[in-house]
Write a structure and sequence with these properties.
Blueprint: E1 2-7, H1 11-22, E2 26-31, H2 34-41, E3 48-52, E4 54-55, E5 58-59, H3 60-70, E6 76-80, H4 85-93, E7 98-101, H5 106-120, H6 123-126, E8 127-130, E9 133-136, E10 141-144, E11 147-149, H7 153-164, E12 170-171, H8 172-179, H9 189-202, E13 209-212, E14 216-219
Parallel strand pairs: 1-2, 1-3, 3-6, 6-7
Antiparallel strand pairs: 4-5, 8-9, 9-10, 10-11, 12-14, 13-14
Helix pairs in contact: 7-9
Amino acid sequence: MTEIYYAEDDPGIAGTVKEYLARKDIKVSVYGTLADLGQALTKCLPAMVLLDWNMPDGRGDGLCRWIRKNWKELPVIFLTVRGDSTDIVSGFENGADDYVVKPFALEVLYARVKSLLRRSGNMGGQYLSCGEITMDLNRMLVRCRAEEITLSAVEYQVLLCLMRNKGRIMTREKLLEQVWDVNGNYVNDNTLTVTVKRLRDKLHQPVCLKTVRSVGYRMEDMDEYA
C-alpha cells in the first residue's frame, strides 16, 4: 500500500482525508505539527508528503525547503486555505510540486495525488529507509538521523544489500558473495565482521541492524522491535 505523510492540525479534516484515501489503497499517516512530520521523515520515507501551509508551529515553506535539501525527489503537495498567490509562489520556490486550495473536494485531492505519484515515477526505488537510516541511491548518499554519513565503497555495498533485503536474514555467505566474490575479491569471513562493525560505528550503533548469531544480519523496521 502506498503511504503518504500528512501535516494537518485539524483532526476532522485529517480523519476525513485519511478515511477517503484508505479506500483508494493509500495509507495516510497524520502529524499535528511540522516538527512531528520532520521527525518522522528522519526515520522512514513515504511516497509523498501533503503539507498544510499554516501549522501551529509555523509555515510549511521552511519544512518544504528542508525536505528538498535532504530528499530532492520526494513529492510534496502543499495545502493553503486561500488561493493566495504569495503562498503559492513561496511554495514552488521552496520546492513544492503542486498545491491544493482549501476547502477542497476529496476527489480533487486524490486526482492531484495520483497524478503526482505517476509523474514522480518509482520514487521508492530511489530511496531506501530503515529505522533512522535512509539511502538515496541516485546520489549514493547515506543519512542517519538526517546527518550525512560517509561510507567506504565496501561499507556502502554491505548496507545496500541489507537495506534491499529488509526484513530478511542475509547470511554471511550471501553477503560475502554479493559484495566481494562477485568482483573477484575473495576475502575471509573476518573481513565481513570488521566491515559491519565499522558500519555500525559510523551509523551510531543503529538498533535496526540486527545480528543473527552464527548466521548473518538483518535490517528491521522500527515497528518490528519497538
